[in-house]
Design a protein that fits this description.
This protein is an alpha+beta fold. It contains eleven helices and eight strands. It folds into three domains: 72 residues, no CATH class; 191 residues, Tetrahydropterin Synthase, Chain A; 70 residues, no CATH class. Helix content is 52%, strand content 15%. The longest helix is centred in the C-terminal third of the chain and has 70 residues.
Length: 403
Amino acid sequence: MAWNEPGNNGQRDPWNRNRQTGNKPGLEDMLKQLRNRFGKLGGGAGGIFTILLAFVIVWVGMSSFTIVDARQAGVVLRFGKYARTLQPGFHLKAPSPIETVTKVGTTEIRSVSDKVRMLTSDENIISVDFNVQYQVSDARKFLFSLSGPPEDTLRQAAEAAVRTVVGANIMDNILTSQGTETVSAAPTPAPASSVAAASSAPSVVTDALAAAPAAIPASPKAQTRDTLQQQTREILQATLDEYDAGLVVTDVSFQNVAPPQEVKDAFDDVNAAREDKQGTENNARAYSSQVVPVARGDASRIAAEAQGYAAARVATATGDASRFNLILKEYKAAPDVTRRRLWLETVEDVMSNNPKVLDGSGGRNMIYLPLDRATGKEMQGVGSVMQSAGSDSSLGGGKEKQP
């Protein structure tokens, strides 16, 4: 008889040994056992209550706590109404659906980007690509203060802020990333002597010097790109605070500021003209920085020379007046002696500076004076001598004349 023939209940192996009766249960046996057990529990009203109670206990245990991550804040709603805000950590709560928790990331840096076209204050069209980075500062306000999605509200508020800032500035301020410093020639302090000389110089020179710094064109300082972005961030943050949105703006950047493609060629021509204008202004400032100091120095020198000439003339006139007073005093004391001395001094002065012709023949020869070689000064001296001689002969009559 074969080892696996029926009849021996299939309990023998090929070596005619009895097989063990403790077989492991199969899948069907396990399912059958589970059905039998649940059938016993579910039998009657007590069994159903036991099953429901088990499910309720498991549900309460699983929904009575929550864990809030360190980068999040939990907003607890009790029957759909705000109850409290949970900080990071482990928290107990009423089981769902009594209380539900909505977790909001508060440390995450979120961003919104958009592109807008607008007009500047000088009526030029410009295209601005901006990016706004923000964080959630209040999870409750972030979820419930705004009627629509917070991202849409932030995008609209950012566009309004960009339009406000760009619309209040001219094209040059927006396209240029760096401002140009104000260039003006400040007057150089002059020495005290030059100031005194300038006070006695003609008013035309003073007016020219005073007007020289004002004649130099000064380019206004343009606002930098960072300043415009900072203004946009402040306006956007003020708007979000009015909305009570629970958002804080961390950064606003203008990623691409350029004229639209349709008018790019015209703006390229404008930029080329602007560069030519800037180069011309720079050349003019360089020329003025060279010419104005030279003119100021020449004016100071002329004023100083004028002051020196005036001082010399005054001193000469004062000396002549003092000398005349002294001669007058001597003349009153001794008129004849003083008159004779003056005549001799004059003749000595004239004769010392003029050529002489001596006649040793006792007046028997005719002598021609070299008048063609005599200068005007020499002829004036001869005239003075002849006038003095005539005055002396008239005084020789014995009648005394007072000067």
